Automatic annotation (TrEMBL):
GO terms for molecular function: (S)-mandelate dehydrogenase activity; FMN binding; L-lactate dehydrogenase (NAD+) activity. The gene is mdlB. PANTHER family: 2-HYDROXYACID OXIDASE 1, S -2-HYDROXY-ACID OXIDASE-RELATED. FMN binds at residues 81-83, 110, 131, 159, 246, 268, 301-305, 324-325. It comes from Pelagimonas varians. This is (S)-mandelate dehydrogenase.
Length: 375
């Protein structure tokens, strides 16, 4: 039986990925900030949130589509921006782009993607959003904005929760760095995982592909602390398309963002990779919806592991959700067939959860009733 056929849940994909990937690569994908209690809290918050089973309702015709910036999406989830995806498997960026094109859902293209932004949006057939980090004095950042505009991106996602890169001890123990460097410890690690190492060697060392611009070298560890509300105002002035601000966990900040003219906020803790003591995004989400009103778009990522999790986020106030590292697990576990297999699993999990909770569609007023009252 092929590896993809062994994936029946995101937990299966993670288990298989852990076996196949070098320790350094797995811990880069899987790790979180500090002692990783933030990641544990995210998972606990999802597990404690219960859905409300309903019976004897005709749920034979279920529709998972939702509206997103005036377009109809086949599913209420897309692909979160993730850096250096090609570490999970050669060509991973384009596997994700093909998935986005096939399902007509947004592919979040990271500033530190392994494939040029122009190639990704081409393969995604336009279904791609560009995720932007502000860094240094911002000169290079605004060059990237102009490049994204020229490439045809219509939605820009400004990530604001990384004024300084969080400390992730698992990465540090293995000496993980970007640009990617191989020393004696990494060589031994790779030698013990030959299948990944040989295929990756044949494809060439993954690079940060969006920094081949004159006079701009990206440093992952460079401070991003100089970004301000004035930076946001300048970005709003130069970006004509949809502007999403990602990494919002404070209601007061969210209200200010709405007043500043952004088109959506994304409730996110960066997958618990930045501030270990940050609140769980799923706990913040209902407060965010109440504060911003019923019409303002709110997106969600962090901690999602299943279609049921996506339904919980939608019922808690999100308009749309994004899966992240579970997709990299699937690629590491089974390549593009593994990715497609996990996507089908997520769709099935959501569809079945809708049936169990009496839902035929994901209209917000209806889906909000799927959350069970606390006992």
């Amino acid at each position: 039986m092929g590896r993809a056929a062994q994936i029946h849940s995101s937990k299966d994909a993670r288990r298989l990925a852990k076996k196949r990937l070098p320790w350094m690569i797995f811990d880069y994908i899987d790790g979180a900030a500090g002692g990783e209690t933030g990641a544990d809290h995210n998972r606990l918050a999802f597990d404690q949130l219960k859905l409300r089973p309903r019976i004897l309702r005709d749920v034979s015709d279920r529709n998972m589509s939702v509206n997103l910036f005036g377009e109809r999406m086949g599913q209420p989830f897309g692909i979160a921006p993730m850096g250096m995806c090609n570490l999970s498997g050669p060509g991973a960026d384009l596997m994700l782009a093909r998935l986005a094109a096939r399902h007509k859902i947004p592919h979040g293209v990271s500033t530190v993607a392994s494939t040029p932004m122009e190639k990704i949006i081409e393969v995604a057939e336009g279904h791609a959003w560009f995720q932007l980090y502000y860094s240094g004095d911002g000169v290079g950042t605004f060059k990237l904005v102009q490049r994204a505009k020229a490439a045809g991106y219509k939605t820009l996602v400004l990530t604001v929760d990384v004024p300084e890169v969080g400390r992730r001890p698992r990465e540090l123990r293995h000496g993980f760095k970007m640009p990617f460097k191989i020393g004696p410890r990494q060589f031994i690690d790779f030698a013990l995982h030959p299948q990944w190492s040989l295929t990756s060697l044949a494809a060439g060392k993954p690079q940060m592909a969006n920094f081949d611009m004159p006079g701009y070298e990206f440093d992952r560890t460079e401070s991003r602390a100089r970004a301000t509300w004035e930076t946001l105002s300048k970005l709003r002035d130069v970006w004509p398309g949809n502007l999403v601000v990602k990494g919002v966990l404070d209601v007061e900040d969210a209200i200010t963002l709405k007043e500043a003219g952004v088109d959506a906020v994304q409730v996110s803790s960066h997958g618990a990779r930045q501030l270990e003591s940050a609140p769980s995004p799923i706990e913040v989400l209902p407060k965010m919806r109440q504060a911003l009103g019923p019409e303002f778009p709110i997106f969600f990522d962090s901690g999602l592991r299943s279609g049921e999790d996506a339904l919980k986020a939608l019922a808690s106030g999100a308009d749309f959700t994004f899966f992240g590292r579970v997709l990299q697990y699937a690629i590491a576990a089974g390549g593009e067939p593994g990715l497609n297999r996990l996507w089908t699993v997520l769709e099935d999990e959501l569809s079945i959860a809708m049936a169990q909770t009496g839902l035929c569609d994901l209209d917000r007023a209806t889906v909000a009733r799927a959350i069970a009252a606390p006992t």
